[in-house]
Amino acid sequence: MLAPPDLTAEIERLQEELLIEKERNLRTLADFRNYRRRVEHDVLMLAEVSQQGMINPVQNIINDMRNLYVANNLVVINLI
After folding, report:
1. Which of 46, 60, 62, 63 is the most buried (most CB within 10 A)?
2. Angle at CA 75, nearest 5°, toward 73 and 77?
3. What is the CA radius of gyration of the chain?
4. Are 38 and 46 in contact (CB under 8 A)?
5. Global pTM?
6. Whole-angstrom Cα distance, residue 10 to residue 6?
7. Kindly report the CA angle at 55 between 50 and 61, in degrees rounded to 5?
8. In b/e form, how buried is each residue of 23-62, taking b as 16+ CB within 10 angstroms?
9. C-beta atoms surrounding 66 within 10 Å
């Protein structure tokens, strides 16, 4: 059974509209995934930089103490 011409045109219009919405949703999902990846990457980089900011001063203190021990002919115990 064929639909009347006015319904056929309406069905075609709605099918086009649905296709446009599907494409828009796919683009939005892709944008969100890219945003999430960027944020995760930024968080990891920030954590790494923060960690280095805390580790480097501690390593400098350990190296200074090791140099002091060596300069005074004391035994150096490697803890790290």
Report:
1. 62
2. 145
3. 32
4. no
5. 0.53
6. 6
7. 140
8. eeeeeeeeeeeeeeeeeeeeeeeeeeeeeeeeeeeeeeee
9. 15
Angle at 51 between CA 49 and CA 57, to 5 degrees: 105
**For residue 76, what are its two tokens?**
């150096």
Q: How many CB atoms lie under 10 A from the CB of residue 69?
A: 13
Angstrom CA distances, 43 to 29, 46, 56, 68, 72, stand at: 21, 5, 20, 38, 44
- Rounded Cα distance between 9 and 47, Å, is 57
